[in-house]
Amino acid sequence: MLDTAQRVFFSRWEHSATGGLIMQLNRSRMNFRQHPLYRRWSDAAYNHKFAYLAETVPNQVAQALPVTLIFGPFLPFLVVIIFGTSVFKAFLVALAIFLVAFALLIASADSMLASGLTAGSLTVEREAGRWELLMLIPDDRMAVVIMRVASMLMPYRPLVGTMDLLQTVFAFVAALILSGRATEQDSNLLGLCMLFFLPSLFLLGWERQQDFALGVSLGVFTGLMKKERLALAISLSSGAGIVFVRLMVAMIAVGVAPTAHGFWVALPVCIAGPAMLPMMGTPVLVFIPILLVYYGVREYVIRYLLRDGLRRATGWD
Fold first, then answer.
1. Residue 187 has pLDDT above 60, yes or no
2. How far apart are CA 200 and CA 278, in angstroms?
3. CB atoms within 10 A of CB 88
4. Largest distance between two CA atoms of the chain
5. Calpha distance 212→264 (Å, rounded)
6. What's phi and psi for 34, nearest 5 deg?
7. Which of 109, 115, 136, 272 could potentially form a cystine with 219 if both were Cys, beta carbons 3.0 to 4.6 Å apart?
8. Which residues contact 146 (CB under 8 A, 6 or more apart)?
9. In terms of pTM, does the model score above 0.70?
């Protein structure tokens, strides 16, 4: 039974726009790692100064995150003891503003990184006059594009994974804090957080994959169609666009479901996605249609951007 379910899941995953793109990126390294072009592109990507940061930042976060989660809650008590309650209130406001801003930056950074690197790698080849030569490689054109993109993105995958982890942690922490501050009438929110923890974690993992695929597909579209500066500007704005769409989804959920517990449900949703809605009190009958439409539209956008960008840039019919 489990084997059958696993085969069905991976079959559906491979045929989705997100799963197909990510699997192509992963296979490209194995299929082309001995290709001279791939090795040259990959070496150049790994030798870039930003690749060094992409390697060191995850290690630093891995060391700092457990200590922060253990000792961070004691920091407010230390401020109260040393400075008193008046300073403590100002400290909480400043800390909340900083954490919200940082969380929203992390929420947009994943797509921005993927789209910016993808667009940059393709515009370099186009504007250097090498694109027509690349299209003569004896393979299908999508494979060549994926080979170029994969060679650029590979050094940054640890950083992307770290940002995904931080995004999920921030979303759940925000949900727990807001649930703990709910009124007695809404006291069941903390129970909802516990009940929907594992399903939400699974859906958030899918959404992080979609964010990455959206970034890559937008980078392919702009990198093959626009000049370098315009392509990078459009690609880097994708992160803000994703957060804005999540905000709109949260507002729709609150408007459609009057039992949702106020507009503050928008914060965890903006950070991580609509998978946080049931944890914030949105009824399941409202949550499921919103989620289906949300993920379905994102899958269509990924597929459209890849096909249309490549078709126009290579003169396909």
1. no
2. 8
3. 17
4. 72
5. 26
6. -95, -5
7. 115
8. 24, 25, 28
9. yes
Domain layout of the chain by residue ranges = 22-314
For residue 184, what pLDDT is reported? 46
Sign of torsion, CA 191 193 197 200? positive
Q: What is the per-residue pLDDT across 111-131, written as a single tens digit (0 to 9) for each?
A: 888 898 888 888 888 888 887
pLDDT at 100: 83
